[in-house]
Amino acid sequence: MSDTPDTIIVTTLADVVDPNDGLTSLREAILAPDDGFRGKTIVLGEGTYTLSRSGTESPETRDFDIYANVTIVGNGAGRTTINGNGIDRIFEIFPSASLALSNLTLTGGNAMYDRGGAIYNKGEISLTDVTLDNNRAAFGGAIYNDQFGVAAISDTKFLDNQTHGLDGGRGRVGSMGESVLEYTGYNLGYFMASSGLPGGNGGDGGDGSDASGGAIYNALNASITIVNSVLSGNGATGGRGGDGGDGGQGGPEKLVGPVPTFIANELKSGNGGNGGNG
Question: Taking a C-beta distance cutoff of 8 angstroms, is the pair 64, 31 a contact?
Answer without folding.
Answer: no
